[in-house]
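Box 3.1. Reading complex inputs
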Amino acid sequence: MPELPEVEFAARSLRRWLADRTVQEVVAPASRIFRGTDRKALVRDLRGRRLEWIERRGKYLLIAWDRGVGLLSHLGMTGKWLRLPEHQDEATHVRAELILAEGGSVAYDDQRLFGRLTLHPAEELLDLPEIRALGPDPLIDGIDPGLLAEKFKKTSRSVKVALMDQRVLAGLGNIQTTEALFLARIHPEREARSLSPEEVERLVRAIEDTLQKTLDDIDGDLIAYVEEAGSHNPFQIYRRQGEACPRCGTTLEAMVLGGRTTVFCPRCQSL
DNA sequence: ACGGATGTTCGCGC
DNA sequence: CGCGCGAACATCCG
């Protein structure tokens, strides 16, 4: 599920689901998502808590409760937060369930266990090393083309790999970088430092556009799970190698960059 | 049966 | 130190 738009949606959902509610009990069997944290302390400390605030930074969720209890949540590859009205059977991979005193529960579901849920003092959440290491968040901080260009100048990597680096910009993954480069008509394999100021400007606008478009699609319920991409793929070129470019009709191609399949139009995004 | 999938991290070799 | 690559993590789907 998770790149910036999906995580933002999770943050908004959790704020609604947890507002003015009390966590009555926590059910959290041992699993990898608790790595590095004391699971039993997490269960104990969360009991009786009420939400204070939730923030998203890149693909991370910071969840602060009363009495200074803090949770750091990362959705990994297949993590999602769910509202379970009563009992659940469709949520087959629930790893942590926060049962609410007011009824129902809020649950973290993660099939592949690449996600993470760890306990921290609430006031330290924003100062955690993994959060401090993040670059600017496109939604919270905005994207400064000058700053981005400066970062590009310092590396010999391709623009696609640089954009997926969370220290450059926080929140972009394989889908959003693929889409943004297509919108900006920039070949993913271009050296980041070779981009002209005009191209960086175009790229910044493309990133903002694709993030907003995906957020709108999620709000419009157009995206449930992108695993269904074959049938409901809402993206312009992601996973569409072999199909016709929506702009010029040329057959879309794919290559591997930074270990991820990258789709591009060889004509619109020439080297 | 095989290959690939929205992410992060680590080790290796250059 | 920077960078690319492959592996690992665990499971499902086409």
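In summary: The two ends of chain A are 31 Å apart (CA to CA).
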